[in-house]
Task: inverse folding
């Protein structure tokens, strides 16, 4: 939407939806996610759509990465907190060698995306249930266990796609 506003400052989200519906009817685009989800639908150009865009504007598009689970990708991008936490878990802070616990993730995000511990924990639980991250219990002190989070292979692929 933001890139559209540069060229058409008065465009609204409903205008984009209408254009996409017309493209869908003409077999120029297709869904990478389920059609019925209310937000976070991901569309891509069909081979016909790529050909039309190439001929009309001399723009070449890459095909979507077949290794990405697009419904899971959509699930991550629908919530800014999930997206931010997933990216943070994969970020290597050279000055900070502490494990990626909920508290450390929250502290690392403090400058760019301040959020409380409860939303951080909720996002971690959601990402864990989606099998995008795993948690390992590590010993801390005498009688204390901490949950340290890391990305799964699928989580790493989605993170890389988010950072493109």
Result:
């Amino acid at each position: 939407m933001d890139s559209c506003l540069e060229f058409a400052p008065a465009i609204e989200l409903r205008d984009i939806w209408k254009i996409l519906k017309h493209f869908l009817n003409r077999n120029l685009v297709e869904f990478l996610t389920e059609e019925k989800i209310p937000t976070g639908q991901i569309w891509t150009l069909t081979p016909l759509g790529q050909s039309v865009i190439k001929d009309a504007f001399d723009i070449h598009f890459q095909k979507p990465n077949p290794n990405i689970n697009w419904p899971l990708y959509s699930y991550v991008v629908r919530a800014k907190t999930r997206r931010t936490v997933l990216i943070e878990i994969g970020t290597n802070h050279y000055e900070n060698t502490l494990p990626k616990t909920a508290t450390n993730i929250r502290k690392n995000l403090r400058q760019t995306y301040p959020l409380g511990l409860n939303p951080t924990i909720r996002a971690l639980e959601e990402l864990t249930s989606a099998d995008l991250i795993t948690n390992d219990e590590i010993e801390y002190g005498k009688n204390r266990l901490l949950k340290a989070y890391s990305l799964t292979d699928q989580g790493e692929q989605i993170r890389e796609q988010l950072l493109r």
Observations:
- The longest strand covers residues 133-139.
- The helical segments are 2-7, 13-25, 47-57, 70-77, 80-90, 102-109, 117-129, 153-162.
